[in-house]
Amino acid sequence: DAGVTQSPTHLIKTRGQQVTLRCSPKSGHDTVSWYQQALGQGPQFIFQYYEEEERQRGNFPDRFSGHQFPNYSSELNVNALLLGDSALYLCASSLDPGAIYEKLFFGSGTQLSVL
Amino acid sequence: AQKITQTQPGMFVQEKEAVTLDCTYDTSDPSYGLFWYKQPSSGEMIFLIYQGSYDQQNATEGRYSLNFQKARKSANLVISASQLGDSAMYFCAMREGQRVDDKIIFGKGTRLHILP
Predict the structure, then answer these.
(1) Does residue A47 sit in helix, strand or coil?
(2) pLDDT, tens digit (0-9, with 9 covering 90-100), for A41-74
(3) Which of A15, A35, A20, A36 is nearest to A81 (CA)?
(4) d(Cα B91, Cα B113) in Å, to the nearest integer?
(5) Which of A42, A43, A101 lies at the smallest CB-CB distance from B33?
(6) Cα–Cα distance between B73 and B53 in angstroms, integer?
(7) Would you give the DSSP letter of residue B82?
(8) Is the dihedral of CA B97, B98, B99, B104 positive or negative?
(9) SS3 of A49, please?
(10) Which of A81, B1, B53, B69 is 20 to 30 Å from the Cα of A110, by its Cα?
(11) How many Å apart are CA A110 and CA A20, to the nearest integer?
């Protein structure tokens, strides 16, 4: 049973460029959440997708956008990259997000470096 | 306002000793869930243990237990008989309410070093 997979594992971009990160959820999961984790910090919630729609969003600018496909996989797009966007981007999947006990399953993340 | 507070940025513990990682939280919602995750150097967050706000007993999962003190709003993780493989970042997290759009928020984490 495949867990959450993310690609690529590492990425180097320059300021102003655009980037797309990809995530495949754990088999059977239909909800994908994206988190940004700066060095030495806890993960910060970016947004969550369910049934191909963005259901909720954290405190991130519109430069951060996403998409969910019919097979539940998801993409995170960041436009006009800033140095401060350098971070580990984590994708997490879950099932039955309405259950308070529902835990997240995480991928290993994409390490984005903006130069 | 920060809802999850982890006051120990780093801890050093001798192998085989027990260790307690502190977590306090802030919420006015009577229904919430508390989680602990482990993040090794590989980056993947690994779920360890869950405690619901209405659970009467402290949660336990193998060597992990959660010391839940509701009145004090604390949810400390206790690792018994620590092992070298326990060296990692540990994050406390919370989910409020049971609305379908509720998200899990994380603290800043504690880096645990197990010494041989």
Answers:
(1) strand
(2) 999 999 999 989 998 899 999 999 999 999 999 9
(3) A15
(4) 14
(5) A101
(6) 10
(7) -
(8) positive
(9) strand
(10) B1
(11) 10
Q: Which residue has the tokens 């984490």?
A: B109
Contact B43 A100 (CB under 8 A): no
A90 contacts B45? CB cut-off 8 A: yes
Closest CA to A20 of A78, A87, A104: A78
Most confident residue range from A14-28, A48-62, B85-99: A14-28
Tokens of A32: 């994908």
Which residues from B are below 8 Å from A104, CB to CB? 45, 47, 104
One-letter amino acid at A88 equals L
Residue B111 C-alpha, separation from nearest chain A C-alpha, in angstroms: 9
Q: Which residues contact B56 (CB under 8 A, 6 or more apart)?
A: none
List the structure tokens of A114: 């903006």
Cis upstream peptide for A61 (omega within 30°): no
Query: A84: Cβ–Cβ under 8 A, 6 or more apart, which residues?
Result: A114
Residues 6 or more apart whose CB falls under 8 angstroms from that of A34 comprise A23, A45, A46, A47, A48, A66, A74, A76, A89, A90, A91, A92
